[in-house]
Amino acid sequence: MSDNPTASSAIGRVLDFLSKTCIFLSSCALVVLVVIFGWLVFGRYVLNVTPTWVEQLALLLICYITFLGAAAGVHENTHLGVSFIREAMPRPIRNVLRIICDLAVAGFGLVMLISCIQLVQFGWSTKLPMLNIPEGMRTLPAAILGGLMFLFAGFRAIRQISYLFKPGTRPVEEGPSWD
Asked: Structurally, how many domains does the chain consist of?
C-alpha cells in the first residue's frame, strides 16, 4: 500500500460504496421476497391459484440476501467470529493476530471466488425450473461474496501491515474506519 493517505482513503471509500451497495441490494431483495410471498398467500387463498414460480424465486433471492449481506458483514467486521482471545492479548500480539485473521479470511474469499466461478460456469447451461434463467444465477452471489471477502479483508490486512512499519501511527481497529 502506498504511503499516500489519500489513496488509502479513496480505496476505502470505494470499498464502503461496495458494502453499502450490497446492503441496498440485499434490502431490495428482502422487500421483493416479502411481496412475492404476499402474492403467494393471496393467490393460494383468495384466487385459489397457487403461483408456482414463487418458491424458486424465493430460493434465489435468499441466496442473494445471504451472500451480499455476508459480504457487507466482512467489510464492517461484524461477521461471525470468535475474537475474545485475540482481543485479550497485548497490543503487538493482537495486531499480528488481526493481520493473520484478515489474511485467512482473504485467502478463503479467494478460494471461494475461484471455486464458485467454476460452479457458475458449470450451471450456466441448465435452467432453473419455472424461472427459465440459468442455474448459475444461484451460485453467482457466492462468487461475488468470495471476491468481496478477498477485497475487504485483504485491504484491511494491507492497512494493518502498513501500520506495523510506520512508527507513531495507530493500528486499524475493528470496523472500516478509513482515514
From this structure: 1
At 30, list the grid cell.
Answer: 428482502
Q: Which three cell numbers stand for residue 103?
A: 489474511
Q: Look at residue 12 and tell me if it is in a domain.
A: yes
Helix, strand, or coil (residue 75): helix
Whole-model pTM: value is 0.83
Q: Position of cell 486499524?
A: 172
pLDDT digits (tens, 9 = 90+) for 10-26: 999 999 999 999 999 99
Beta strands in the chain (DSSP E): none
The residues facing 149 across adjacent strands are none
DSSP assigned state of 48 = S
Which residues constitute the domain of residue 40?
5-164
Question: Residues 83, 173: contact at Cβ < 8 Å?
Answer: no
Domain-embedded: residue 170: no
**Residue 92: what residue type?**
P
